[in-house]
Design goal:
Strand content of chain A: 5-15%
CATH superfamily of the largest domain in chain A: NAD(P)-binding Rossmann-like Domain
Oligomer: homodimer
Number of domains of chain A: 2
Number of helices of chain A: 15
Largest interface: A-B, 50 and 50 residues
Largest sheet of chain A: 8 strands, mixed
Order of helices and strands of chain A: EHEHEHEHEEEHEHEHEHHHHHHHH
Radius of gyration of chain A: 20 Å
CATH class of the largest domain in chain A: Alpha Beta
Number of strands of chain A: 10
Chain lengths: ~350, ~350
């Protein structure tokens, strides 16, 4: 039996308690400072307020002040904070994790440097660990898996990535269930890039749904040719970008699976549809107020990085007309005007 | 103004009359021997019986006996027969097409030879042309485009493939509209393989929809993790297969777009859902009687070819667990049992 400590009781962190606990491990779910109510509710009802079924019995719930106790005897720590909590995790949690305990992060995203380098979060945390003189192994989860479907025991396929294949095998053995299937790979930058890149592209595909609603005046007449056309172009651009980041083909495929699930997965889709229907980005965000829009942030960062690299002649922005258009919409506040003919070049 | 002759007035052949005629060309739609009623209806109502809107005015309709007149002055001929009409087209139509007139085929499929070679239809027709001592250029259309959405002017992106870039440019100029966007490529085998290969994979993805319906007892609770997992695996297998056929990455992307639209596009989806719900292939076909199941035929052919190549040691069937399972279901009548863990290997 392992002791698996999950830090961050948002939907994805909490969902991972299901396979972990169902496999008979000790599971400690620790809320962040923003998760106080979730942990209180979970203690009272054994259910996450956003889920429609109970946690498997025996999951232990901790408030953030109790992190130290929660970490006692940990086999590994799962980081389930949102991408807005990445620095916080590095500053408030990493220093407390005992040196020998490996980490598995489900936080998705990329951060761009002034020179156009796109770093994944394990890279950022590695820098923090180096400063702390610590040697925890950093691993990450990527791939097509929405939390509520994982909770529903829908069949899911994800990738665990990290440097050490033995550690990955240990984590895979601990987390694999009849419905949660895990590939392992050492291609950390590839997986993390692929699953972060898909955000802007999912928005791009959703634009076509909104455009069709606007054109037909009918929410039910959903057409797929236009979605498929943008999906095709997204595939082409993502393959280039993953390779550019140094990733493998398998990581690109994982990103494509993630793109597929994200087109249907809620917030990004909703923003894209509203934009396609003719709202400006500001109007769309106003309409959807309160939703976290990590996907828009990531798309903007990737576009900013590509522009810098293009300025140095390292790539041609004309190879990325879809991402550039998504960036125009969300960064420059331009109206939707999908550059169809540029996809046929 | 060009004269564009479409042979085969099924849904896709007929749909191509829309961009062609809207661009001001003379368009002659010629029914096959099975299309007599469609042509009669179209003459009377200017509408295809399966479409919900009229043909653009001025499309001319011909019965098959009038093929010779229809071909007079043709700039190019579009072959719109189903894959079951491939031999018929070669025997009954090819000999009548004047030697200098190029052909553009929208028929999708592959045919396997005893040695496991997978030929595309332009290859088959080339052999017929060689026998006839004719030199018509053979081109083909692939990519994500369903006929009824093309008719609805949904934005669509397809690839025209052929040997001669000048001919492709002529056809592209003739057919491009504000909603029909055309890539051109010389990678005929890649495009034709990619768009044929997607059939079995679309069935595989649809299986998960049926499985979820069976499991949840609820047709509305459609989950996407499992669809995305199979989509991921399909991407991986299709990339390998397209490359094995000698195709390019761009053709693979086109196949992925086609896979996306096919998951939503009707017949293949329906069969997959019924199979996933627990029906045998025979029960599913009984339930859907009358539908043409080109996709099942193609998937069976590809599997048969791969097995022969594997027997010669040219490939490892373990790299294609999804296609092999689809083949088990449709060829060996086995029940659905998606090999999830083999996707995580």
């Amino acid at each position: 039996m392992k002791t698996i400590v999950i830090v961050g009781s948002g939907m994805m962190g909490s969902a991972l308690a299901f396979p972990a606990r169902e496999n008979g491990h000790r599971v400690r779910l620790v809320g962040t400072v923003l998760d106080r109510d979730i942990i209180e509710t979970a203690r009272r009802t054994n259910r996450h307020p956003k889920f429609d079924r109970d946690f498997p019995s025996g999951v232990e719930f901790y408030q953030f002040e109790e992190l130290k106790q929660a970490l006692e005897g940990a086999s590994f720590v799962i980081c389930g904070v949102s991408s807005f909590g990445v620095d916080w995790f590095g500053d408030a949690v990493l220093p407390q994790i005992p040196n020998e305990v490996p980490i598995l992060s489900v936080t998705k995203g990329l951060q761009d440097l002034p020179d156009g380098t796109l770093l994944c979060y394990p890279d950022l945390w590695q820098a923090k660990l180096d400063k702390l003189g610590k040697s925890n192994e950093l691993n990450a989860i990527g791939g097509p898996c929405t939390s509520y479907e994982l909770v529903a025991h829908d069949q899911s396929l994800v990738a665990f990535c990290g440097r050490n294949l033995q550690t990955l095998a240990m984590m895979k053995a601990a987390m694999t269930t009849s419905y949660y299937h895990i590939m392992v790979t050492q291609d950390v930058i590839g997986i993390e890039s692929a699953v972060a890149l898909k955000n802007g592209y999912a928005l791009g595909i959703a634009l076509t749904i909104g455009e069709n609603i606007r054109r037909s005046g009918n929410e039910n007449e959903i057409h797929y040719n236009s979605q498929a056309a943008v999906f095709l172009q997204a595939t082409r651009e993502m393959d280039k970008l993953v390779a550019m980041q140094g990733g493998t083909a398998n990581s690109f495929y994982t990103g494509i699976g993630d793109l597929y699930v994200t087109v249907y997965g809620g917030r990004t889709r909703k923003v894209g549809i509203l934009l396609g229907e003719g709202l400006s980005i500001d109007e769309a965000l106003e309409r959807l107020q309160g939703v976290t829009l990590e996907s828009l942030v990531v798309a903007g960062r990737v576009a900013r990085a590509l522009k810098k690299r293009a300025a140095r002649g390292e790539l041609n922005l004309a190879d990325f007309p879809l991402l550039m258009h998504v960036d125009e919409i969300i960064t420059d506040r331009k109206p939707v005007n999908i550059p169809w003919e540029s996809f046929a070049k």
